[in-house]
Structure formats: C-alpha cells, structure tokens
Design goal:
With 412 residues, this protein is mainly α. 69% of the residues lie in helices and 2% in strands. The radius of gyration is 25 Å and the shape is globular. Mean pLDDT is 81; it is low at 7-12 and 114-118.
Length: 412
Amino acid sequence: MSEALSQLEQQGKDDLTYGDIVWGQFRKTRLSYICLLGVGVLFGLAIFAPVIASTRPFLWTTPEGTTFPWFTSLFDRNYYENAVDIFFNLWLIFGIPLAFAWGVYIKRVQKQGLQKRPRRRKMIRALWGCIALFLVTFMGILANPHAEPYRLYAEEYETAQEAGDDVSAVFPFIRYSPRQTGFRPLEKPSRQHILGVDQSTRDVAVRLLYGTRISLSIGVIAVAIYVTIGIIMGATAGFFGGWVDIAIQRLIEVTMCVPSLFVILTLVAFVEEPSIFHIMVIIGLVRWTGVARLTRGEYLRLRSLDFVTAAKALGYTRRRIIFHQILPNAMGPILVAAPFGVASAILFEATLSFLGLGDLSAPSWGQTLQEGYASGSWHLILAPGFAIFLTVFLLNMAGEGVRDALDPKMRK
C-alpha cells in the first residue's frame, strides 16, 4: 500500500510543469508571497475605486422614476476625464467576469487531464479574441464619449431630505470624487476627510485611491513597452550575431550613456500637454536596454544547444525558432527584471509629477507630494510618500521572490 502511495506521489511530481515548480517554490518564501498578495490588493483597489468612492449613487429614485447614475458614469468622459479611468472601469464591468470565466475553464481543463491539451491553441485564440474585443470597446468609448452634465448628487440628496422630498439614493462608501473641490483648503485629517484636504480643496484619500490606477498603469504598460522592445532587440542580436549584434550593442551603449531621467525630462518638456500615454511611451523608449542585454546573453547561451539545432534541422523558420523555441527558455531573467521595472517606472512617474511635468488631469501621487512640499503640510507629504514607499516595497519584495524561485540552486 505504501509503495502504491509513493508511486502516486512520484507520478504527481512528474506531472508538474515548470510553472508549477516555480510557483511552489515562490510560495515557500512567506514574505514575497505576502507582498504579492499586497500587490493584488493594490490592483483590486485600483479596479474597484468607483465602488469605494464616487459622487454618483448606485441607485437614484425620485417620483419621476429610478435611474442608475453610477453605472452610466463609468464610461462618461465628462465625469472620468482620464483614459486610464475608463480602462479600469472596463475591467470592473467586463474584465473581471471574463477573467473569472477563463479561470474556471482552465481549472476544468486541468481536471480532465492530458486529453484536453490539444485545445491549447484554441484557448489562446479565444484569449486573444477577448483582448481584441476589450480594446475595440475601449477605443469606441474614447471616440464616442457620453456627456452627462456634472451633477452633485450628494448635495441634491441632502437638500431633498431637508425639504422632505420623496428622494432615495444608495451611495458608495465615500461620496467624493478625485476632481471634487469646495472643501476647506489644507484641512488636517478628520472623520470626514481621513487623510485631510489638499491645497486645491480636494480630498486626499480619494485622490490617493484613484492615483493607484495611475501608478500601476504607468508601471505595467511602460514595462510592457520596454520589455517588448528589449526582447526583440536582444533576441535579434543574440541569435544572428556578427554585424547585427555589433550594431545593436553600439545602439544599447549609446542609449545607456545618457541618464534616463534627463532624457525623460527633456522629452516631456517638448510636449505641450503631457498625458499619461506620453509618459508611458517615453519611459518605455529609454529603459529597454537592460532587458535587451539580458535577452542577448540568454540567446547567446541557448542558440548552440541541441534543441535549437534540432529545430533548424526540422526546417523551422527563424521567427519560430527565435520566439517559439528559444524565447520560452530565456524568460527567466526577464521575469525577474519586470517587477523591479514596474517599481522603477512608478518612481519615475512620481518624480515627473513632483516636478510639474506630469499629467495635470490625473490624480497622481507626485502631485499631492508636490503640494505638500510647497505648503509644508505634513499630511500631504506623509500620505503619498507612504503610498509610493509601500507600492515600491511590495513590488521589490515580490521580485526578490521571483528571482529566488527561478534559481534552481535556491530550491528546497
């Protein structure tokens, strides 16, 4: 009986994929695992920010009828000026249900065993189809904004209650928006404003909540841009070698000679109205060199191995060998660099906003920090400073865990 159990355990270990092994090793590092959960909480706060804080009620009932202002405001460019908010609102309404359905489907396939593996290509096509539909919907909303007049439902509700009118409403937990003004300037933290009010008479807690969207989107999208560029350049240099490698190496060295911060400051200064999109692209265009060097080193190591020689003998195209055969085996160092890159991009965005070169329409943490520095208000310095510190700490510790999990020498 014991022999049978040991055989079953060994068979289970043999069926583990590389991803299962890395994830199991990562979970053994308690601090990194907790920090990864913390990053997930930050993404949850970013996605569910309108559920927590909004001036629009979920339900608005008057003698004329019942409306749902909160739902209609999610895609209203008059209420949410920034495209980042529209993107996260789409995730809130459509992305979360699709991700949940996709996870249920993956679990079902895993339970049914190996006979379902040929469907992997169909699953990937379905995933790309969902992403394309998501992006088309996002661009359609940006092109055809719904413009409802900006109304202060909370004030209307209070006035109606005082007058005895038949009006009922269900509001979010916090009845403020990041754009709402009219409070007492530089008010200290209180029960009504838990983190106080900034110099522009806006609630600091709500701006920090919505600023999570800005910071995470800057970090993730900017890193996705420069990781893509770095992989293409590094793979090309490492696989072909020769004059191609020399040319790309010289380009990398020239790009690295100029400090990234000064390049970003110079490029942003030439843009009349810097937006979040401009900052993402600029960071992506100047930070790709590190990923390119890592990818090049991995391709130089892997291109002479037997599986690459076998792929060439089978007549695979160069594109298939580079991206389908070698790249999956070269992703380790890139996956390690990505979390640190997200943290670095968040710091860059906060620096630009602190210097007044960020997107003025976005509730950035750097803007609040700059107002605190200008006014000398401690709550405007500590609140965004702690938010930046916590986010960067969580990402860096999660990156440390990924690095240890991918290192075979660290496995227990």
